[in-house]
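Minutes, project huddle
Topic: does the predicted pose make sense with H79 bound?
PN asked that the exact inputs be recorded in the minutes so nobody has to dig through chat later. Recorded below.
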Amino acid sequence: MKIPSLLLTSLLSAGSLLAQDAAPIQPAAIKNWQDARFGMFIHWGPVSLKGNEIGWSRGSQVAIEEYDNLYKQFNPTKFNADEWVAVAKAAGMKYMVLTTKHHDGFCLWDTKQTDYNIMNTPFKRDVVKELAAACKKGGIAFGTYYSTCDWHHPAFPLGSPGGKSHKPNPDMKAYDAYLQAQVTELVRNYGPLFTLWFDVPQSYDQTYGIPMVNMLRKLQPDLMINNRAYSKNGVGSGIGHQLPVADYDTPEQSIGGFNMDRPWETCMTICEQWAWKPNDKMKSLKECIHTLIRTNGGDGNLIFNVGPQPDGLIEGRQVERLKEMGAWLAKNSAAVYETRGGPWKPSSQLVSTRKGNKIYLHLLRKVDGPVTVSALPVAIKSAKVLNGPAIKTSTADGSLSFVMPDNSWDEIDTIVELTIDGDAMSIAPLKPSTQSSIPGAKASASVIYQNDPQYSAEMVLDGDPETRWATPEGTKQSWLQIDFAKETTFNGVNIEEAYSDHSSRVKKFELQKKDGSSWTTFHKGDALGAHFKASFAPVTTSAIRLNILDASDGPTISEIQLSKKP
Ligand code: H79
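Predicted holo structure (C-alpha cells), as shared on screen:
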C-alpha cells in the first residue's frame, strides 16, 4: 500500500513527538539549585532497626516476612526534626533530601495511598511533615527522594531481592496511578520542594515517565527532577546506565566528570552504607572535603548521605565529622557557594571554582617548588591565598606559575584566589597543565584502541585528565611503558583510570621497573580506579611499566604521575 506523503510526514512527526522528553525546566530553577552546591541526603526507615541496607537487604540479608514487619517496632522516640536541620546547617549544607519511600515501599509520611506508612507504626508521627516544617523554619531547602521502583507494592512487576523476582499480578497502569498520587501528595502537602529525587526506574519507561514529569511541572514549575524519573525503551533503569532525562544527572558513589553543559549532583555516603550500620567505616575529614571540592570543581553539587539510627538520632561521630566540614566551609565559603566549576578542568592535583571576577584554584596536594598551571586568557589583577597573604604570579610560555608563600600550604585544600579583569564565566575550559606530567618522558603501549592517535599512550603524560590511553574492547592483558629522559628516583605513583565510575576495569596489575633488559615488579595490586595512589621504597630506573594482568573490559588510563616524598 502506498502511504500518502502528507500522512507519512505526520506519522513520522507523531513518532518523534513520542520520542521527545518531558518539558524543560526554567533556567532560574537550575541556577538556584546549582548555587546551593552542598546538601544532605538522609536514608532512613524501619530497616535501621536491623542495621542492614535499605531496600537491597529485603529478601537477601533480611527475610521478606521479617523486613515487612519491622515497621511494627519502629519507634524513633529521639527523632527531632529541628536537630537534623541544625546538623545540616552546622555542616554548611543548603538543602536536605529524605527517603520518603525507598525500594522497600515503606512510606515515611501520612499517605492516603497505602497503610504501609509511618502513621501505622508505634511512632505515629508524620516524619516528612515535621522535617519539611523544620527545614522551612531553619532556612534549609527540603526535597524528597521517592523510589520509582517498589519491590513491595503488589502491582509493581518486580520484587525482592533486588528487583530480581516477578510478582504474580503486575499492573503497571495501577502502579503508575499509585506513584502519581503519591508524588502529588508530596508536592502538594510538603512543598514547594527543592527536588524530587527518583531512583531505579525499573519497568517505568517514557510512556509513563514523560506524562508524570509534565504533571509535576504543572504542580510546581520550578521543581528540579533528577534523571532517574524514567527509563527509555528499557535503557536507563539501573544506576550504571543513566540517561540525561529531566533536569540533572546523578553519579552515585563517584565524583562526576567535568561538565558545564548539563547540571549534575554526586550522591555519596559519609560511611559505606546508605542506611545506618553499626561501626560502618567513616570517611576522614580530608576525604569528605575533597569529595565536595572535586565535585564542585567539575561543576556538580554534592549530596552527602547520613543514615540516622533507629532511635532517630544521627550518630555522634557523624555529627562531629559534619561539623568539621562546616567549620572548614565557614572559612572558605567564598570558594564554594554560588560558584561554578572550572575554568581549569579537574586533575588529581587541583580543581578550580569561579564566580564574578574571581577564580579559586584549589591545590589538593602539596607541590615542591613553583605551582604551574596553564595560563589564563585574561589578565590577573591580583592573587592571594584565600584568608592569607598576597601571591606574585607570572605568565610565560603558556603557563601561569607562582611560589606559595611560606606556611601557606593547607593539609586539605590550599585555595588561591585570583581576581581577574573580566567575568570568570566567560573563560572556556582549560587543561590544568601545559607541561608533561613527567618532563622529557615518552610513553608507549602494547595495544591502542583502533590505533587511533587520540588514544595513544602519550595521553597519560599530557596533564589533561580528559584525554586517555585506551585499549580495544574486551582487552584483558596489556602494558603501558614510560621511558624517562634519564635515570629517575621516585617512591610514589598516582594513576587515574578513566571509565571507573562504578568499578575499576583493571582487576589485577603490577608496576615494574627496567632492570637492564628485564622487568622487575616493585608493586602489585588489584583495582586501580579514578584516583589510585601507592607509595613504596624508593625506585631508581630508566623506565617503568604498568602491566595489566586482568581486566573486566579494555583498560583505559587518563593520567600517570610519579611522586617523590622525603
Ligand atoms: O538509595 C541509594 C541506593 O540504595 C540506590 N541509590 C542510592 C541513592 C541504588 N539503587 N540502585 N543502586 C543503588 C545500585 C545497586 C547497587 C548495589 Fe548494593 C550493589 C546493590 C547491591 C550491591 C549498594 C551496595 C546497595 C547495596 C549494597
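Observations noted during the meeting:
- Residues 1-19 have pLDDT under 50 and may be disordered.
- Residues 43, 53, 55-56, 199-200, 239, 252, 267, 274 surround H79 (CB under 6 Å).
No decisions taken; revisit at the next huddle.
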